[in-house]
Amino acid sequence: MDKKPCPLTFQCLEPSVIINFPMEHLHTIYSRIPTFEKYGRLIVEGKLKIQQERLESFLLQNAEQRYRDFMKQYPQLHNRITVSQLCSYLGVERQTLTRIRKKISKLN
After folding, report:
1. Which alpha helices (DSSP H) does the chain contain, by range?
2. What is the 3-state composition of the chain as percent helix, strand, coil, each rounded to the nearest 5?
3. pLDDT higher at 1 or 73
4. Which Gene3D superfamilies does the record cross-reference, listed alphabetically (predicted)?
5. Are 56 and 81 found together in one domain?
6. Burial 17-27 (b: 16+ CB within 10 A, else e)
7. Which domain holds residue 47?
8. Is 34 part of any domain?
9. Residue 5: is its pLDDT beyond 80?
């Protein structure tokens, strides 16, 4: 491990409990409890899959497709976040999101 701090940050949209512990503790648990290492690997594989899908969405989909996928995947979330947060997540300007929503509402 290079032990460099991650340059990324995250924002909780709702009250949350965040647990942070040294990587050495995780490695100790892995060495003492082999089954826990298996579950840790499965969790990381799942997170990697989600990250890969998100990256692919930016490479292979346009903004409208990403918006439609967001609405399908998180149908209740758009009511709980700001337009600015949604734009940031989708990687689009506010005007683009407005145009997409207008187009979709005309189709429905």
Report:
1. 23-32, 34-60, 63-73, 83-90, 94-107
2. 70, 0, 30
3. 73
4. Jelly Rolls
5. no
6. eeeeeeeeeee
7. 22-60
8. yes
9. yes
| Same-domain check for residues 31 and 48 | yes
- Residues written for the chain: 108
| Shared domain check, 55 and 70 | no
Q: What is the pLDDT of residues 75-104, one digit of tens each?
A: 999 889 999 999 999 999 999 999 999 999
Asked, for residue 17, whether it belongs to a domain, the answer is: no
| Cα–Cα distance for residue pair 103/108, rounded to 1 Å | 9
Which residue's entry shows tokens 């490479």?
Answer: 59
Please indicate, yes or no, whether residues 52 and 69 belong to a single structural domain of this protein. no
User: Token digits for 60?
Assistant: 């292979």
Q: Please check whether residue 83 is in contact with residue 94, taking contact to mean a CB–CB distance below 8 angstroms.
A: yes
